[in-house]
Design a protein that fits this description.
The chain is elongated, with a radius of gyration of 26 Å. A four-stranded mixed β-sheet has the order 1-2-3-4. A hairpin with a 2-residue loop joins β1 and β2. It has two domains: 240 residues, no CATH class; 127 residues, CBS-domain. It is α/β, with parallel strands linked by helices.
Length: 377
Amino acid sequence: MFGKRIKLFKIFGFEVGIDWSWIILAILVAWSLSVGLFPVQFKGLSTQTYWLMGIVGTLGLFFSIVFHEMSHSLIARKYGMRIKGITLFIFGGVAEMGDEPGSPKAEFMMAIVGPTSSIFIGLVFYGVYILGRQNAWSEAFNGVVQYLAFINGLLAVFNLIPAFPLDGGRVLRSILWGWKENLRWATHISSKIGSGFGILLIVLGAFQFLRGNFLGGMWWFLIGMFLRGAAKTSYQQLLLRKALEGESVKRFMKTDPVVVTPSITVGQLVEDYIYKYHHKMFPIVEEKDRLIGCVTTKQVKEIPREEWSSKKVVEIAAKCTAENTIDPRVDAMKALSIMSKSGLSRLMVTEGNRLVGVIALKDMLRFLSLKVELEET
């Protein structure tokens, strides 16, 4: 889902970070508040005051989203789910779950706490706003607090819409799951509704755009596109988890992979291996299957063609790391996770410093396709 992630801080054991796209959102929010909303609602203040209000309002929005996602994370941890961290991105924030909820109750509690926390913090901000008006606090302060009360209420209402993967969609999934005792069916129905809601937002965005509201229409359109894509992706990820559940890397690895020796040149690698076997990664092995690294087509592309005949593959080899190797006994889902993060389609399977096989993304996807086809109900 995310590009480059910036780590900010840790709280209650959860790492909070922002995607680069959230910086774009923060700038847009601060700008729209400073030159749009606050000058219209609170006339007569200085430009510097409006910008200060906009920046504080943006920081308050950041706090509100983190509070919302933190509530999800704490409940998820209570029910035994692994949370990798909390990331803010251009469409809000997400608690990155490593597992699906273990029961409908766990799903319901984790989902409903999000809107509940937004309502709670919205009421707190509204209470501060009322207190500020009664005590004649500055108009700028009251304006920012009023905005934060409103935006948290809006966040709660939007998230309660029963469109997966919004919180309301997860609540719906938990109810359907409890009713039929079938997580896959419940996710299928919920994601269909989420996809339909995304299409509705896309249509509304196009309508707003045609009416001349370019900025508003663009946001509706983008949010609709995101929700539609997220709904489909969430269902596909569930199918993937269920299909690979309990399957180890050993099930999918090839025990007789094509390997290269450290003494061959880059030119020999290209002509005798890449063009022949069509792989993008080759393990580099010495005697007795001792693994010393790997070489990829990406590394080859960085070498000038005139040096291919003289440079050895061992000179450009990538070392064995957690990003390109895996143990044969671990869950196949971990292999997929590593591939997703590293961008590799093949991993070396190792025991100690010894190569025992290679696992390829295409083999796992072929298995997934067959299993889904045979078990479709």
